[in-house]
TrEMBL record:
This is small monomeric GTPase. The lineage of its organism: Eukaryota, Metazoa, Chordata, Craniata, Vertebrata. It comes from Salarias fasciatus (Jewelled blenny). It is found in: Membrane. One of its GO terms (cellular component) is membrane. SUPFAM superfamilies: P-loop containing nucleoside triphosphate hydrolases. Its main location: membrane. It catalyses: GTP + H2O = GDP + phosphate + H(+). GO terms for molecular function: G protein activity; GTP binding.
Length: 129
């Protein structure tokens, strides 16, 4: 069976609840828009394969819940990501101000490799993109 992809990138969407992370992902993977807001529970993901210069690039995008109560779950995904999108709603100044908080949460998780020794060599996903 032919290999389905040559390289895999794991990316993560982070931001306040309701800023449009799921919509952004649906638009990117399926070119669809669903106007209803059904809060993500924990973490969900979608994939898309792109052909770039003859290389099959599979992009796996993890869509996290913006609600605070799921953060124990969502933080477990920060280290596995090779890139993180910090998403805000352009009509919500508050969601923009919270971007600093999301970024510092990521920094906090990845700055303490002793919490997860097997992940100690992971690059900082906020610095690599
Ligand atoms: N006008 C407008 N509304 C949007 C856009 N993108 C998303 N929305 C609306 O924003 C609401 C929330 O979108 P979601 O994508 O579910 O938000 P989310 O960030 O995934 O929310 P959580 O799963 O709770 O973290 C929905 O009611 C969408 O219809 C946009 O580009 N324009």
């Amino acid at each position: 069976m032919a290999k389905q992809y040559d390289v895999l990138f794991r990316l993560l969407l982070l931001g306040d609840s309701g800023v449009g992370k799921t919509c952004l992902l649906c638009r990117f993977t399926d070119n669809e828009f669903h106007p209803s807001h059904i809060s993500t529970i924990g973490v969900d993901f979608k994939m898309k394969t792109l052909l770039i210069d003859g290389v099959k690039v599979r992009i796996q995008i993890w869509d996290t819940a913006g609600q605070e109560r799921y953060q124990t779950i969502t933080k477990q995904y920060y280290r596995r990501a090779q890139g993180i999108f910090l998403v805000y709603d352009i009509t919500s100044e508050r969601s923009f101000q919270h971007i600093m908080k999301w970024a510092s949460d990521v920094d906090e998780v990845i700055s303490f490799p002793e919490r997860c020794p097997s992940c100690a060599v992971s690059p900082n996903p906020l610095l690599t993109f």
